[in-house]
Write a structure and sequence with these properties.
Order of helices and strands of chain A: HHHHHHHHHH
Largest sheet of chain A: none
CATH superfamily of chain A: Tetracycline Repressor, domain 2
Oligomer: homodimer
CATH architecture of chain A: Orthogonal Bundle
Structural class of chain A: mainly alpha
Radius of gyration of chain A: 19 Å
Strand content of chain A: under 5%
Low-confidence stretches of chain A: 200-207
Number of strands of chain A: 0
Chain lengths: 207, 207
DNA sequence: ATTTTTTTATTGAACGTTCAATCAATAAAG
DNA sequence: CTTTATTGATTGAACGTTCAATAAAAAAAT
């Protein structure tokens, strides 16, 4: 099979296989052999393309984060309405995007979440992502409420999103995305209700 | 040192040492030797008292869950007010109890959360706990609102609690318990505000 | 067109390390 | 002297990494 230009293909293959393995048996038992078998290649190839297992894990987490980033950015870019509510709504929708709520992605994310507490490389990635979510939310909330209130609203909504997401990942049947989105949008409505924002029927379409 | 009646002492010692080790290096590198060193005993003793490493981990998670259970139960028992708001407030307070928000407990919990997705023994414990929180919240909400609304409120508040808790565990500086409690209580106020509940200054005392 | 050479991709067995579990030996307490 | 508690060296299995060998494709030469 060896032809030129395999690198991007193999990297993608192995990242996907990593998520599949973590979905199957968890991060603790996702050995290089198991990951390689999922990708249909040998174990040695992982060190060749990622320098080692740690490199593959870091690349996998980076992939998930850029997927999330793109899911949010695409929705915000497609808005015809520039209101804070619309932007925050898009952020919510992006966080419950297809690529995120799939079982392999969800379980992999949670595994990395726990792992990031003790691995500096993962911790940095995780912090960047956290700050971006908070900063984006905060910026939009500040357009309609005082700074102190905006900070609390951003913290609350960020916690709500992560909490819904976490509980979804732990549920045996997987995350119920429509319901999670509905709860998040309802919470957003409640946060904005005191500040005279125009109230869309933003939750009707999600159920 | 060997004298009779060591079992309960050693068990407690080793459970505490397990949390300390997980706090220090994470579950993946919390080896039996490291845990034993934390407790000041030899590695072999773990198999003697817990049948093996898995037994110790399960006992540790069980300990955390019973601590949480007691923290909530104690606060609900001490209520002089029987209102739904008071009960739910006590549940919130219990979830942000001292024993829960300590760094070792928080990191251990998150580690088990991730681990419980693939270890049936831990998954059962986690499910029981989840269901209890949801059922308790749901029961109280039903006293003041229709069943469908109560279910959503319970799901939302449970997600909020877990989300605040999760974000706190990942923050380098640890969880800011007073702020988390304030956000949770504010959310509770918003959930109840449409149902004519008497509105306490329930958040003033927490800041 | 065919053959030879070079480059690139991949394998899989071997190596060294690490870990959990075991158990015979030991030491203190009753 | 018996019982209970504890140790720590040992064992065997599992893991990630390495590297010489291999095979296919591409390039060069005939």
């Amino acid at each position: 099979m060896p032809k030129v230009g395999m690198e991007p293909i193999r990297r993608q293959q192995l990242i996907k296989a990593t998520m599949a393995a973590i979905d199957e048996v968890g991060l603790a038992e996702a050995t290089v052999m198991r990951i390689a078998r999922h990708a249909g290649v040998s174990a040695g190839i992982i060190s060749h393309y990622f320098g080692g297992k740690d490199g593959l894990l870091e690349a996998t987490m980076r992939q998930i984060l850029t997927d999330l980033s793109h899911a949010v950015a695409a929705r915000r870019h497609a808005l015809e309405d520039d209101s804070p509510r619309a932007h925050i709504g898009a952020i919510i929708e992006g966080n419950f995007d297809r690529t995120q709520v799939t079982d392999p992605a969800a379980k992999t994310w949670l595994a990395f979440w726990a792992s990031s507490m003790h691995k500096p490389a993962l911790q940095r990635l995780q912090n960047v992502n956290d700050r971006r979510l908070y900063a984006n939310l905060c910026h939009q909330f500040k357009r309609v409420m005082p700074r102190a209130d905006a900070r609390n609203a951003a913290r609350g909504l960020a916690a709500m999103i992560d909490g819904l997401w976490l509980r979804g990942a732990l549920t045996p049947d997987g995350l119920d995305a429509p319901e999670a989105r509905h709860l998040a949008h309802t919470y957003l409505d409640q946060l904005l209700i005191h500040y005279g924002c125009q109230q869309f029927a933003s939750t009707a379409e999600t159920l």
